[in-house]
């Protein structure tokens, strides 16, 4: 039987992984697809680099040569940045190919447009590898959405940040020392900004939002913070209090509004992501019927990412499940009491000299002074963003999963806000 002809855009970490996985798992793929999959062409930036490839493979810097491969059916994309990836995949769809991408920056921005084009053309867009590498989170959410509504997604989506926070806590080391060791081990890029400043997790969260809710919040409305300001002194107090700091990407839909952030948050042992350590990724999805579902696994790396792309390939020739619901199709039944209730949460607030006028409504649950810093665990009703806006000198960490709905009248809310921001 004639093989499935495929092309690879990019032959770096991920591209080479896909090439290798297609060879090492040839038989398994042939059993599933009924045909062999053959890479016929590879697009690169620098043609002069030495590459270990089968003789028949076309290697080129000209995308037209790839599109001109006779009978090309599938294009895998693993290059970097928004462009030229988006243009290449649009053209590949127009040409009648299925496309499979690992490129989160491109897909966060242009995913909807590619999915719409593919739907119109009866083609398939695989993007499992864009989010949490080898974990099957895109397929899991797609499957859950067949019947369930998704209410919220909470996730550790950046392995580098998780590795740094885990090792700062376990070894008592400062941020910079662990970052250097992560770079030596190949867990962090030479330029780690996208990982440690939260951009990488942000793009992945936007991809999960589009899939789960059929839309994203306005990007500028999402609170985004990296892990660079987390200190080992803070981590040591959090540890004594039973918390770990995790860099969490979170989105919840409450009626027509999104509550969304990407930032360091405290979790206790009851939280589903408490035990997710080192470079692991994990995603908890809160659903209408299935309750909380957590998927955990390798968030990046050559073979886990290649696995996601090759798994996508097995869907190419199969009927596709519905993967999105438009906003209007969602039931606005979650948090239906939220008009009358306000959310009260727990926060750890850290400052050099914090004086606090507690009341029954703003409660200090715990306090400690360590190395001239005052640590307060408080319960109150405002968000970290509000606290920080009013008190930029403070460090504020939200404690995940401690939100409660309390009835608070508007007048009380105003008083509360004033009291909290007077810390
Ligand atoms: N690394 C991971 O673990 C991982 C995990 C999930 C998703 N991803 C995503 O997968 C994509 C690839 O990542 P990677 O780590 O494999 O990157 P990489 O090692 O830097 O490889 C990038 C490849 O793309 C080629 N390339 C770059 N710009 C190009 C252009 N304009 N035209 C044609 N080819 C171009 C490069 O060609 P040359 O070889 O000639 O330089 C190289 O082969 C990225 O979007 C990344 O975000 C990576």
Automatic annotation (TrEMBL):
Q: Output the Gene Ontology terms for molecular function.
A: homoserine dehydrogenase activity
Q: Which UniProt keywords apply?
A: Amino-acid biosynthesis, Methionine biosynthesis, NADP, Oxidoreductase, Threonine biosynthesis
- Keyword field contains Lipid biosynthesis: no
Q: In which pathway does it act?
A: Amino-acid biosynthesis; L-threonine biosynthesis; L-threonine from L-aspartate: step 3/5; Amino-acid biosynthesis; L-methionine biosynthesis via de novo pathway; L-homoserine from L-aspartate: step 3/3
Reaction(s) catalysed by this chain's protein: L-homoserine + NADP(+) = L-aspartate 4-semialdehyde + NADPH + H(+)
Quote the EC number.
1.1.1.3
Domain called Aspartate/homoserine dehydrogenase NAD-binding: residue spans: 10-127
Q: Which Gene3D superfamilies match?
A: 3.30.70.260, Dihydrodipicolinate Reductase, domain 2, NAD(P)-binding Rossmann-like Domain
Q: Does the keyword rRNA-binding apply?
A: no
Superkingdom: Bacteria
Q: Which residues form the Homoserine dehydrogenase catalytic domain?
A: 136-313
Q: Which family does it belong to?
A: Belongs to the homoserine dehydrogenase family.
| Name used for this protein in its record | Homoserine dehydrogenase
Tell me which species this is from: Fictibacillus nanhaiensis
């Amino acid at each position: 039987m004639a093989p499935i002809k495929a092309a690879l855009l990019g032959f770096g970490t991920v591209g080479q992984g896909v090439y290798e996985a297609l060879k090492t798992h040839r038989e398994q793929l042939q059993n599933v697809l009924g045909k062999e999959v053959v890479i016929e062409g590879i697009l690169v930036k620098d043609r002069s680099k030495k590459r270990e490839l089968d003789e028949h493979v076309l290697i080129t810097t000209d995308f037209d040569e790839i599109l001109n491969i006779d009978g090309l059916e599938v294009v895998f994309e693993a290059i970097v940045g928004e462009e030229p990836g988006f243009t290449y995949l649009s053209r590949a769809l127009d040409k009648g190919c299925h496309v499979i991408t690992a490129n989160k920056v491109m897909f966060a921005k242009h995913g909807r447009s590619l999915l719409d084009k593919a739907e119109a053309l009866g083609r398939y867009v695989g993007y499992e590898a864009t989010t949490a590498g080898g974990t099957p989170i895109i397929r899991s959410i797609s499957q859950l959405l067949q019947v369930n509504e998704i209410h919220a997604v909470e996730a550790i989506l950046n392995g580098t940040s998780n590795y740094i926070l885990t090792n700062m806590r376990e070894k008592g080391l400062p941020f910079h020392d662990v970052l250097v060791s992560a770079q030596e081990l190949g867990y962090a890029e030479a330029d780690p900004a996208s990982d440690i400043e939260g951009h990488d997790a942000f793009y992945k969260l936007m991809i999960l939002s589009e899939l789960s809710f059929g839309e994203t919040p306005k990007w500028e409305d999402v609170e985004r913070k990296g892990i660079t300001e987390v200190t080992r002194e803070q981590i040591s107090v959090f540890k004594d209090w039973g918390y770990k700091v995790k860099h969490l990407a979170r989105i919840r839909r409450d009626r027509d509004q999104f509550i969304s952030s990407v930032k360091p948050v405290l979790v206790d042992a009851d939280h589903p992501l408490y035990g997710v350590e080192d470079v692991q990724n994990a995603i908890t999805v809160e659903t209408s019927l299935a309750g909380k579902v957590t998927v955990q696994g390798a968030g990046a790396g050559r073979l886990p990412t290649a696995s996601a792309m090759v798994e996508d390939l097995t869907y190419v020739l199969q009927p596709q499940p519905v993967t999105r619901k438009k906003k209007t199709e969602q039931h606005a039944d979650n948090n239906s009491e939220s008009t009358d209730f306000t959310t009260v949460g727990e926060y750890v607030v850290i400052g050099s000299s914090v004086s606090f006028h507690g009341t029954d409504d703003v409660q200090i649950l715990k306090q400690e002074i360590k190395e001239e810093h005052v640590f307060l665990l408080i319960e109150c009703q405002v968000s970290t963003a509000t606290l920080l806006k009013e008190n930029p000198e403070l460090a504020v960490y939200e404690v995940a999963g401690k939100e409660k709905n309390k009835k608070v009248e508007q007048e009380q809310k105003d008083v509360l806000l004033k009291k909290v921001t007077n810390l």
